[in-house]
Amino acid sequence: MTRVSKKTRSRRGAPASTAPANRPPANAVSRRRNPDDAVEAVLSRLLTTIAAGDLLHAELETATIMAIPRTIGQADPDDVKAFVSDVLVGGAVRTRTPESAALLRLLMSLGSPAVKRESSQALGRLTSAGVYPTAVVTEIGKAVPVRAWRRYDIFGDDETIAVTFRYGGVEHGIVAHIDLAGLPVAAMVGITPDPAKLIEVMNSEDDPFERGEEIGLAEARRRLEEPLARCDQDPDPSTSADTLAYLPIARSRVRRLPSAGPGAEAPVFTAADRAAAVHDFLQSPLAGEAAAADEESTRFWAEVLTGYSSRTPGEPPAQVGPLKLTHLLLGHVPNTFTLSPAQRQHLEPAVTAWTNWSAPYRDLDEAQTAHLVKYLPDTFARFDDAYDSPQAVTARSYLTDLAASDSDISWLASQLARRMFAVPMPEAHDDGRLNAGDSADRRALVESEFAACAPPGGMTSEQFVSAADQVISELWHDDPPETFQAARRLFADGAERHDIIHALVAAREPSTAR
What we know:
Layout: H1 28-31, H2 35-51, H3 55-66, H4 68-71, H5 77-95, H6 98-110, H7 113-128, E1 144-153, E2 158-167, E3 170-179, E4 185-192, H8 195-202, E5 210-215, H9 217-233, H10 241-254, H11 271-282, H12 285-293, H13 295-307, H14 322-336, H15 341-345, H16 347-361, H17 366-373, H18 376-388, H19 390-397, H20 409-422, H21 439-450, H22 461-477, H23 481-492, H24 497-506
Antiparallel strand pairs: 1-2, 1-5, 2-3, 3-4
Helix pairs in contact: 2-3, 2-6, 3-6, 3-10, 5-6, 5-7, 6-7, 9-10, 11-13, 12-13, 12-16, 13-16, 14-18, 14-19, 16-17, 20-22, 21-22, 22-24, 23-24
C-alpha cells in the first residue's frame, strides 16, 4: 500500500531522547558472543540497580531488556513474551533474592497482560518460599505527575507532549513526538532526568511555525494515550530502539495522569461541521474559478480534503499542513478513492484553491500560507505514480463500494480493517494487482490459502474451501455481523487469522458449511 515514509517527515521541536548514562544499549545481549553469559551479566547489573533503590534506572534497564526482541526484528508478541519469560521471569525465579522478587514486580508494572500474569504467578511462588521483594517495591510505578507542556506545528502536522513526574524523590520527564499526518501515532518517545532542559526546549521560540504552551495533565493524557498505544501495537520499521524501550515506561506514566479535568475532552466536530466547511469554501471567491470549470469535481475534492479530519476526534475540518497534504494526496486518496478522469484532471486547481482558502479560515498569515502551499507542485507531480501503482490499485479495491467523498474516515478505516482481516493484502497477484472487491478474485485467494489444508469433520477439500470462501464472504460484507464478532473473540484469545477461519468453518452445522 502506498504510504509516506516517516523518515521524510519533519521532526522540528522534538527534544532529543535522553536517559541516565548507565542504561545498557538495547542490543546489549545480542552483541556478546556467549548469549548465556550476556544474559547473566545484564540480569546481574539490573539486580544491582534494584538493590541500590534507583527506581527510574531499574525501570529503564528492565524496559530496555524487554525491548531486545523488537529491536532485532522479532516483533511477534509470542517472541517477545518468550524472551521476557526466559530471561527476566526465569532469571528472577532462578536467582531467588529480594531483588529478583522486586524485578518481578517491575515486570508486573511494565509488561504486557501475559507478562504481568506470569510475573505475578512467579512472585507468588517466591513469596510462598519465603523470598520477599525489597522495600523499594512499594514505590514501583507510583510516579506523581507534576506539569505538562505541548509544542505544536501551527499547521497541525505534528506535536510534542512532555510531562514531568516526581519519582523516588527526584523529578524526571517523559516526552513523545506525535505524528498527526495520519492517525496520531508516537514517532519518538524519550525519558530525561533533566526536566528543566526539557521545559526549556518545549518553550523555545526558534521556529516561526511552532508554538509552545503549558497544558493540563488530563489534556496531556488525552493527547498521549492512543498515539503511544498505536506505536506499541504497530511500530514503524524506522522506530528507534530507544523509543521501543521507553514505550512501556511512558505508557505506565500516562496511566498515572488524570482522565478528567481541563482539556480531557476533545472538541467535537461533526459531519455537519464538515459539510458547512465545504459549503463555505464553495461559496468563496477562491473556489469560484475552480468550480466554474468543474463544480462537481471541485466539490469532490473539497469533501475529500475536509472529510479527512474525521479520522481523529478534535481536528477542525479545515486543519491541514504540508506533511498532512502530502500524506493525504499520495497515500490516503490513492488507497481509498476510485477517481473519474475529470476528478484526476481537476486535482490541481481544486486542491490549490481549497488549500489557499483554508489558510485564512485558520488565521494563517501570508508567510505561513506561502509555506503551506509551496510543496503542492511537487505533490501534484508525484500523484499519478502514486495513484497508478499496483499496490494502490489493490488497496482501493477494498473500498470501491463504500468510499464516497463525504465518507467518515474513521468508519471507512473500520470497514477496511475488517476486510483486510477477511482478505489480507497479497504481496503479488498476477501483474501485482488484485480486485479484492471481486468475488472471483477473493475465491482464488481462498483456494490458494486453504486448498492444501486438512479439512475438519469429514469434509472434502472442495467442501472445506467452499465453506472457507463463505466465511470470508460474510466477513467481507459483515453479513451476518455475528461472523466477525465471533472472529474478534477468537482473535482476542490469541488465535491467528488462518486458524480463526478454520474454527469458524468447523463450528458450523454440516449443512451450512458445505
